[in-house]
């Protein structure tokens, strides 16, 4: 067996992407010259590096457990990955295993049907690598009565790589998704049980040698305009694109020098805002596809952007800074500093009064244009906070009689709900077992969907913090989103699938 360093680098690059470390993946890709390799990423399945490592671990365990005569006995304790690459530990485990086998063969040892202490062993389910654990249903901590049945889930297959993002059309049941296979797709999820959901494939191509060829770059962001007749996408190839609902490419927006990490339409639908690895943010004229203004205030890649009004916005960066900018103004109208690590996401509240930010420094901060220091510095998560969302409630929303709350999702496997007015955590949602990458409120604010790399989508009551519904898919969840009527939840996954949960009559 042989492999090249390019192949190893590519698998590491894909692992970083699939694990959500997009900025690290970009840096590693540049330094290892991934773009210059001839590897077709669309042909490499998700979790390829983990699969290879798992097979290597199984092989090492087999070396320990299979004797010269070909007989096999089980390990009493599985090897960890670090154990498997440490020669002294492997040798020690092999010696101990041989001694155990010899003891079993000796008369009076109790034989293979008994445990070490002579008690009869209970029935077990063998796991990969020879480990044995008592048989138990998956999600044993989740009440079976709240699990969403398969009949209420529609799995949408078509993408050839992990699906990083999905978003519902605000007017109809069209679901858009963006993937590492260099395509976005529009799925028609209108209620028509007699047909399979129709999909439109939006191929992201670049000019090369006078011809259009697939970019082979991830589609990292997408957003519908307010009317739902146009979809904007952002890609690692450095271009933003505007598409119609029938899949026609309307405009290609080229000004960034490197991957685009985020893009958003303003409420009026005349401008698009984008953030890129080139440290800049750009306001685009949606009608002409031209750059209206480029803002170069960050000293490191810009990670997220969010409109405050139709002409002002906030941006955040790995430089730990947040800037608030306005169209036709040549410097920030406000800058916030206080985070001690990269700022992953920012979101204005529904009225555009308060700005929330989350960071790898494990904190969540609330800012106001009326002061320079943060209004609240919320410390409760034990690991990095990946994303945040405001509830569609409180003054100025369609649910004015409900309190405004903020949700935060963390790599510590929890989601927290915050009363921002008091600056306190009101609920900690703890059923996930892996990092949580996405949260989304239902349109009425009564429920919160969360998606984690434990492959689960959980739906919670925002009033009680209780788990209402749960569904386990087949891949780690990157994104969850609600349709405009609050009847369906879409989710995108690391195994290339998109799925839709129909919550009616549950």
3D structure, described in words:
This protein is mainly beta and 506 residues long. The protein is built from 5 helices and 36 strands. The chain has a 4-stranded antiparallel beta sheet, with no helix packed on it. It has a 4-stranded antiparallel beta sheet with strand order 4-5-6-7, with no helix packed on it. Strand 11 and strand 12 form a beta hairpin. Helix 1 packs antiparallel against helix 2 and helix 3 (48-65) crosses helix 5. The longest helix has 19 residues, at 87-105. The protein is globular. The N and C termini lie far apart (52 Å). The relative contact order is 0.09.
**Average pLDDT for all residues:** 85
Would you tell me the structural class of the helices and strands? mainly beta
- Strand fraction equals 35-45%
Q: Distance N terminus to C terminus? A: 52 Å
Shape: globular
Task: Give a quick account of the main beta sheet: strands, pairing sense, barrel closure.
Answer: 4 strands, antiparallel
Global Rg: 25 Å
> Helix fraction?
10-25%
What's the tally of helices?
A: 5
Q: Uncertain segments of ≥5 residues (pLDDT<50)?
A: 104-141
Beta strands, count: 36
Strand order of the largest sheet: 3-36-35-34
Biased composition (Low complexity): 122-136
Protein name: F-box-like/WD repeat-containing protein TBL1XR1
GO biological process, one term: regulation of transcription by RNA polymerase II
Main location: nucleus
């Amino acid at each position: 067996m042989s492999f090249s360093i390019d192949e190893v680098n590519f698998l590491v690059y894909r692992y970083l992407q699939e694990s959500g470390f997009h900025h690290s993946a970009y840096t590693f890709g540049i330094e290892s010259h991934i773009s210059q390799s001839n590897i077709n990423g669309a042909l490499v399945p998700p979790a390829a590096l983990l699969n290879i490592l798992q097979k290597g671990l199984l092989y090492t365990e087999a070396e320990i457990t299979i004797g010269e005569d070909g007989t096999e006995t089980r390990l009493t304790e599985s090897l960890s990955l670090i154990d498997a690459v440490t020669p002294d530990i492997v040798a020690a485990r092999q010696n101990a295993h041989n001694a155990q086998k010899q003891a079993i063969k000796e008369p009076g040892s109790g034989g293979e049907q008994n445990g070490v202490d002579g008690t009869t062993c209970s029935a077990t389910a063998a796991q990969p690598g020879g480990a044995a654990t008592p048989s138990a249903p998956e999600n044993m901590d989740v009440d079976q009565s709240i699990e969403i049945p398969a009949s209420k889930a529609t799995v949408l297959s078509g993408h050839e790589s992990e699906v990083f993002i999905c978003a519902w059309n605000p007017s109809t049941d069209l679901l858009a998704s963006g993937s590492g296979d260099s395509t976005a797709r529009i799925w028609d999820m209108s209620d028509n049980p007699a047909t399979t959901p129709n999909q439109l494939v939006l191929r992201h191509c670049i000019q090369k040698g006078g011809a259009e060829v697939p970019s082979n770059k991830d589609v990292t962001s997408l957003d519908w305009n307010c009317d739902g007749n146009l979809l904007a996408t952002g890609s690692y190839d450095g271009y933003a694109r505007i598409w119609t609902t029938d899949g026609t490419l309307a405009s290609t927006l080229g000004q960034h020098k490197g991957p685009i990490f985020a893009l958003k339409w303003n409420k009026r639908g005349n401008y698009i805002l984008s953030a890129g690895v080139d440290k800049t943010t750009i306001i685009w004229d949606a009608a002409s596809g031209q750059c209206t203004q480029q803002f170069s205030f960050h000293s490191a890649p810009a990670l997220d952007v969010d409109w405050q009004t139709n002409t002002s916005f906030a941006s955040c960066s790995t430089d730990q800074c947040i800037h608030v900018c306005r169209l036709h103004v040549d410097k920030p109208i406000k800058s916030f500093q206080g985070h001690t690590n990269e700022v992953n996401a920012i979101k204005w509240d529904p009225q555009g009064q308060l700005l929330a930010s989350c960071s790898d420094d494990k904190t969540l901060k609330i800012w106001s244009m009326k002061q320079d220091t943060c209004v609240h510095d919320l410390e409760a998560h034990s690991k990095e906070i990946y994303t945040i969302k405001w509830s569609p409630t409180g003054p100025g929303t369609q649910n004015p009689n409900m309190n405004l709350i903020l949700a935060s999702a963390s790599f510590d496997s929890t989601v927290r709900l915050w009363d921002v007015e008091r600056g306190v955590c009101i609920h900690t949602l703890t059923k996930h077992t892996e990092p949580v990458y996405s949260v989304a409120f239902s349109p009425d604010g009564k429920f919160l969907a969360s998606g984690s790399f434990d492959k689960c989508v959980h739906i919670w009551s925002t009033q009680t913090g209780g788990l209402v519904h749960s569904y386990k898919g087949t891949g780690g969840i990157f994104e969850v989103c609600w349709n405009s009527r609050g009847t369906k939840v879409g989710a995108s996954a690391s195994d290339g699938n998109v799925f839709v949960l129909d919550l009616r009559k549950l």
